[in-house]
Structures are given as C-alpha cells and as structure tokens.
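Researcher: We are triaging several targets before committing to wet-lab work. For this one, the compound of interest is flavin-adenine dinucleotide. I'm pasting the protein sequence and the ligand SMILES. What I need is the predicted three-dimensional arrangement of the protein with the ligand bound, expressed as structure tokens, so it can go straight into our comparison scripts without reformatting.
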Amino acid sequence: MILKENYSIKNSLQINSVADYGAEINNLNDLDKLFRFINDKCLDYFILGEGTNLVPPSRYKGLAISYISDEILELDEGILRVGSSVNWQDLVNYAINKNYYGFENLSLIPGSVGAAPIQNIGAYGADVQQLIRNVHYYDLDKGIHNSFDNAQCNFEYRNSIFKESNFLITHVDFKIKKNGELNLNYKSLSHEVNKKIQSGQQLNPKEVSNIVSTIRMKVLPDPSKEPNAGSFFKNPIVKLSDINLSSHNLDDLILWKIDENYSKVGAARLIELIKNSLNSYDNVSISSKHNLVLSTNGNASQQEVLKLASEIQSKVKTTFNIDLEIEPRIIS
Ligand SMILES: Cc1cc2nc3c(=O)[nH]c(=O)nc-3n(C[C@H](O)[C@H](O)[C@H](O)COP(=O)(O)OP(=O)(O)OC[C@H]3O[C@@H](n4cnc5c(N)ncnc54)[C@H](O)[C@@H]3O)c2cc1C
C-alpha cells in the first residue's frame, strides 16, 4: 500500500480537489492493511476510480482509495475476469476485437471497470447488468473478501447494491458471448443502423461499436475539451397524472412508457424547457451539446456546480412537479 498526503483527486469536471490522504493499493493482501489503517485512524474515505462520475470538494478531509488491478483473464466456463482499474473502453475494445457480443452498445463510456457495476452503467438500450456474472469485492466495514452473483447485485436503472455500500470492487466476471443478437432497438441507433443495412453492410459487434462511438462523439462533449461528468441527472420515473402541465403539454416532453400510469421522462428535455430562466454562473453552465450535461471551464468549485444543479432541480420542480435526482457521486 502506498500512502500519500495531499492527494490530488482527479475528476473530469476538473474541480481543483485534494484529499488529506490517498492510498494506492495493487494487491488483494494489502486490503487488510488498509482496513486496519482506516479503523486505527478513524478516517472517512471514498473509493476513487477514474473520477468521471464525481463532484469532489476542494478539500476532502479523509482518504481517497485507488485499487489497481489491470488484468483481463479468460477463465474456463466462458468467463472474462477483469481487474477494476482496467479502463472500460479498453475492455470494450478487447471484447469487440474477439467478436464477443454485448459490449458494443456501451462503447465510449468513460471510467473504469470497477465503477461500472456501481451505477449499472448503460447506454443505447443496454446496461452492464446484462453482461455481469459475478462481482468480487472487499467489504471495508467488516474487513472481508466476498462476491455477489448477478441477482445479489440488485441492479436497477443507474443503481445497484454497491451505490450505498462500502464495498471496494476488486474485479468483475463478465459472461463471454461468442454468438448473440445485436441490440439495435434504441431509436437513434436503429436509425443509423438502417442506413448501413440499406447500403448492404453486414453488422457485427465492431460495426455497432463504431456507430455508437460516432453518435456519442456527435452528441456528447469530450471531457478533455469541455470538463463534465456526463449526465448530471437521472431520467425520473413519474406518475403521468402527477406532472404539472399548466405551462406545457405532455407532447412537449419525452416519455418512455413503463406501464399504464408510470413513464420515464427525458430529463434533458425538461431542462431544455426551463433553461432560459436560469441564472448564469462564471465557471459552470449547461453544455451547448447536451442539456443533461453540466460543463465547467476548469475553474469551478463543487459549490458552484451544485448551485446550478440545485437551481435546475428547483425550476423543474416548480414548473413540472418533477424531482430530478443527481447522478454523479457528491463527495463530502
Ligand atoms: C462524457 C461522459 C459520458 C458518460 N456517459 C455515460 C453513459 O452513457 N452511461 C453511464 O452509465 N455513465 C456515463 N458516464 C458516467 C461515468 O462514465 C460512469 O459512471 C463510470 O462508470 C465512472 O467510472 P469512474 O472510474 O470514473 O468512477 P469514479 O467517477 O471514480 O467513481 C464513481 C463512483 O464509483 C465508485 N467506485 C469507483 N471505483 C470503485 C471500485 N473499484 N469499487 C467500489 N466503488 C468504486 C466511486 O466511489 C464513486 O461512487 C459518463 C461520464 C462522462 C464524463
């Protein structure tokens, strides 16, 4: 275990953020040492991946933990065992180069493999839960190694058992699918796919990955040029009869029907409809590429980002009677 003081917390919003301590751990045995260290010092802590889904404070009075395991192993029984610090896109590339099915729709999602189960990353009609067999973790409350099978992870839309736990994910087992069906139902994806099919092109995971990557590069800001943490709010699931429609029609909203009464509502459209009434801030704004993304100029603080987020939440609430939930982890 390597322990550092005044540890810089990398984050894709480029908030200037430092933790009192940082611990870098690169083997399973050191996790017991980490457990004793945290308890001896009574330290607050959080687990840091690549920092693409975090809103950190300028000073974190505690320990930022980075676990480093960068192996990709093909085990018997069609399992791909992947270390938590492997970059997600590196895993996608590995899978599509082997023509394994299932990873292609999740192309170009930033971050690490270890963070993928936390909020059950998803895009273009697919979620990582469809690929996961087991998640191996170290329980930082009890100081023990353990693992969950897929059902025990309690995966939901942008949620899992890991979100509110102190479980450090060390590696993830994925199912290898050498044959499979491509998942092409998502609207913007099927539109591009149909164009390819009409031009006589055969589709495989690599082709679909290329299409997804092209769409993403068009519609999402690149965090290295425009610092951001991806979607800042989840798409809320609401009862249609509860929506306040005094200033807009239902047709103005984007709805994905869940059942007769409930629908998932596109948060980006809600924000688009209220954004002209928001105050402007020096260092943070709604991205011009995507209304669900808050971008900084590299000088924003956590408070400033959360101030804009809170103003958006309150305008959406008063206009539509809809609560928006913040998606990235707020470190406090
Ligand atoms: C431009 C952009 C686009 C994005 N698009 C999508 C998208 O399409 N779909 C989507 O779902 N997400 C998207 N995201 C969000 C982000 O990519 C994912 O949440 C990603 O999984 C975060 O990975 P990370 O390694 O950066 O995690 P971090 O930001 O470092 O951490 C995120 C959370 O995971 C926890 N964590 C990290 N590693 C571990 C570990 N090993 N064990 C336990 N807990 C851990 C952290 O404590 C924190 O709570 C996007 C982000 C950006 C910037």
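Researcher: Any quick observations?
Model: The pocket of flavin-adenine dinucleotide is lined by residues 12, 46-54, 67, 84, 109-112, 114-116, 118-119, 121-123, 168-169, 220, 223, 228-230, 329 (CB under 6 Å).
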